[in-house]
Amino acid sequence: xxxxxxxxxxxxxxxxxxxxxxxxxxxxxxxxxxxxxxxxxxxxxxxxxxxxxxxxxxxxxxxxxxxxxxxxxxxxxxxxxxxxxxxxxxxxxxxxxxxxxxxxxxxxxxxxxxxxxxxxxxxxxxxxxxxxxxxxxxxxxxxxxxxxxxxxxxxxxxxxxxxxxxxxxxxxxxxxxxxxxxxxxxxxxxxxxxxxxxxxxxxxxxxxxxxxxxxxxxxxxxxxxxxxxxxxxxxxxxxxxxxxxxxxxxxxxxxxxxxxxxxxxxxxxxxxxxxxxxxxxxxxxxxxxxxxxxxxxxxxxxxxxxxxxxxxxxxxxxxxxxxxxxxxxxxxxxxxxxxxxxxxxxxxxxxxxxxxxxxxxxxxxxxxxxxxxxxxxxxxxxxxxxxxxxxxxxxxxxxxxxxxxxxxxxxxxxxxxxxxxxxxxxxxxxxxxxxxxxxxxxxxxxxxxxxxxxx
Length: 455
Fold this sequence. Notes:
By secondary structure, the chain is mainly α. Helix content is 78%, strand content 1%.
């Protein structure tokens, strides 16, 4: 019985030991599989490392000592982009999309390969898959797009589209009126140049009317003065005749009629001077002239005559300034504005207006003003030229100079060249050389005859 119990106990122990060995084997197998999986993951991680880190051995024993550093390094490398994209490339991606939209809307023929290249590059950037090869492909495609849309440019396309609002004062004003975007630059420029033209036309119209009123009154005063002098001469002749023929009825009648004409012309002359005086005082007000207005009624005839003469002379000086300097300047500006509006219409229609157009047009208007003022300044010299333009008025020439300033500059260059060529010593030296007679060539027959004579 004891032996039976002993064998029974051994059998139970052997049955209990067998599961323990199986568990140990399973645990060792799991560890081996985990180690193989870790090695596989390490190999995959090593494959994902860029070439600059290819020399890093992930399975070295040293990595166990710096496990934290290795984990952080892998985390950074896995989140790092393959290639950094510059800001200029990002801008060009948006511009390429804009050019592609323009080409499609205008119905311009474009290769399908080029469209695919642009679209693929755009989505490669959005998916963070940008590489140097993709950048080269995109730059070549961008160059082809710019050639397809010529003479339209990226800048001109952007100028013809509404822009986003910023934090500027003008943008805040636009936001105040409930608008989310600003109008296109071309539209704003067209509105500004149109407003400038209207303002300049109003100023020109006012100055032209004011100049016309003053010049008309001055002309009337001069005509009245000329006629009074003629009547005075005729009256002197009639007085001489009356001294010899006192009873001549015809002479006496004409004498009375001439006296009446003189009085009428003098009254007309004084009336024009009275109307001219406020014209002069308005210019004084604009020029901050504090001269006190004189009252000719309380003056004697001699003082009143001197005062009227002073007003007339002052009015003539103002009339000269307006007619020779101010009006040609304004007409030159109007000519420049006319040219700008004409060119601006074509650029907006052809979508060629760009950010540099504003500077170009402002300089063009400034050149028109200079051209108009130059016509007024040199009008005396222009009248004496033989170019057939002396018959034109200075206002018309000022307008044409502002509108066609290129031709005016070309004319001035030719004039300056012809003028200074006379005083160029090199030119005079060349002309003297041309004027010197060249020696006649010696013929061979003459030389042989001379040799015979010598013999």
